[in-house]
Amino acid sequence: MGRLDGRVALISGGARGLGLAMVDAFVAEGAQVMIGDVLADEALSVALRLGDKASSVHLDVTDEAEWADAVSATTARFGHLDVLVNNAGTAEGAPLWETSLESYRRVIEVNQVGVFLGMRSVIGAMTEAGRGSIINISSMDGLVGSPRIISYIASKWAVRGMTKAAAMELAPRNIRVNSIHPGNVHTLLASTPGQDRTQVREMMEAATLRHAPMGRVGEASEIAKMAVFLASDDSSYSTGSEFVADGGFTAGYPSPGSPNPF
Known about the structure:
This protein has 262 residues and is of the alpha/beta class. It has helices at residues 17-28, 40-50, 64-78, 101-129, 150-170, 197-211, 220-231, and strands at 8-12, 32-37, 54-58, 83-86, 132-137, 175-182, 242-245. The termini are far apart.
């Protein structure tokens, strides 16, 4: 018996990176999964690999109509919908004084508006199913500040607050809403075009070693396991809460004068 037997999940941004890790973990635990992504060919390839346990749909999370279509496609294919993972995200980095309004809005549209539209779109289907778990992927940057990514910071803090507000409103419908706050996890979002991924991973590992007690970058599979927990009955009394997986990065600050006090 899998922990997610009988569950049907819609996972945005599920074609690669963290989303793909969650798709694989959910299917392994018995769920049926609709993979929503703007990378339609990659999402279809993943679905074909997983067989009748998965399907795919084009999903631009900033598009209200595409959310409606994704929910309809999920219920038509699998009969119901009781788990949503709002995973799709983006980031653009620059100092505050160099961040254009257009750049700021692009990030907000995907990371914040996309989560709003996703949560709103599944309420009817989850109410009809009699249960629901909405899992919003925020970040450790939704708990603390960080320079050069003000739009990303703003969006991830917003996701944290939206999660709590939605949890309070949806609890009477037996729909739980929680957020996951990953730390440094090497996925494609952590790289930009032209960067060598091995070099990026080495830079992230060095930064994490300096600041996180566990001293390593997280694996996408570790975040996926937390999502499985929140989608399952194992978390049946948890709603409106932050679940942090950052290797201790946000637990505190190192002692002065020591580059690696841990």
